[in-house]
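Box 3.1. Reading complex inputs
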Amino acid sequence: MRDGKRIASASAALLAFFILAGWPGRAFTGTFRGDKALGEYLASECVTCHQKSGRQVGGVPAIVGWPEDQFLAVMHAYQKGDRENPIMRTIAGQFKEDELLALAAYFGSLKPQR
Amino acid sequence: MTTRRDILIGSGAIAAASTLPAPAVLGQAKPRVVVIGGGAGGVTAAKYIARDSEKKIAVTLIEENPNYQTCFHSNLFLGGFRDYASILHDYAKLPGHGVDVARARAQVIDRDKKQVVLADGRRIAYDRVVVSPGIDLKYDSVPGWGKEHEERMPHAWKPGAQTRLLKRRLDAVPNGGVIVMIAPPNPFRCPPGPYERISMFAHVLKRTGKTKSKIFIIDPKESFSKQALFQEGWDKHYKGLVEWLGPKVHDGVKSVDSKTGTVVTGFETYKNCALVNVIPAQMAGAIARDSGLANQTGYCPILPESMKSALDTNVFVLGDSTIAGDMPKSAFSANSQAKVAAMTIRGELIGARTFPARYANTCWSLIETEDTVKVGGAYEAKEGKITASSTFISRTGETAELRKQTQAENMGWYAGIIEDMFG
């Protein structure tokens, strides 16, 4: 589920945040390049299944608070067919790179609620 | 007769009658959106417009029922995979997003005056109205069956008492009892729904050892959604229990008699049936038809870029009552369409940014415990309709592990869409 997961920056502050926030309540403190408003609209398609709160229920993973490069890597893996799920291949397949960046910016800005 | 006092203009009137805080400045001209129908389309639209406009748009949701029972996953209730409470939801959190929930029945839309007329005669003015009433049943589409027979031969294709009635009737089928389903013609709500329901019927019979029973599906269609997947599943899990008959075989339903439990087709007569589930032909909900939003098909034409009615630029129609091109009539579709409508309305009324319409849908179907299949797609406005840009469907012969994952996804989606609508 979580392959391709990388942490963009391992600064002490970031590590301290992870420790304070705890798993899975981590948040990305790096920068995002995408258009967050576009991301918010496109994300409305995602949040029918993936909860904005970051709550994971059943077989639908949480996708909030990820670093940009991880979000892109996962979506690219679906686009290339490295990952199997046909729903996610279909959803990821329709997004252009600027739209993926926008989604990464929006979901990355959300903090998982616990 | 309508008195001047009954005509509600502006944002205070309905709000005063409910729990919503009073508008910030009385007399301030705030654009008003009225949403008719508290289902997957209406609730999503109301919440998204109110929440994302940050109270710059007054949103009233009109719904006559205090609760919403989802039709989606009601088959899982029939099969014993969910309890009834788990498919029942209320509107309590919507006011927190700025939605004024008015418990009333909307009768018709006075499109010339831009007012929604309630059943009690009151009127609510709107700048934009969103119509999401779901389907109505064509009670005259099955010979010998009508509204007066729905207790003896339930449809359970609209939620509530009918869903619970069908569950009781299913559980009471004796070993050796015959079940007949009369399936609906296209287009209808939830294309895989009748066949998932058949799977749940068979699951209950098998689980309770009633293996001398038999289920017949009398279908007016030559083929149906996920047919190869369902038929593979029935053969694997319910061998000898389920028999599907297409129109070339049965030559049509000639008559039904709810008193004797009889179904007469051109091929065979089924007598003393323990349960007959009649799912009749369907059309857009009454308010959409009565307000002149449907065409000769009985459903409502829409503009694929916005979900606007093709017949009135101030009206948006969502979900099962629309002609939505390649999108099926599903809660997922209605929820997706609502987001396009909400964005368009915010753009028109308060100048919010808008983007090209994108739509998505997935329909999961449970065949047997942990054996779930799915079909879906992504859609866009193209060639004057909502057109699939990409689609997928489960394959026959998939591993048990994959089918189990698909069921976990199904449960995750249910929790997700409920949170998206009501959370």
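In summary: Chain B is about 25% helix and 30% strand.
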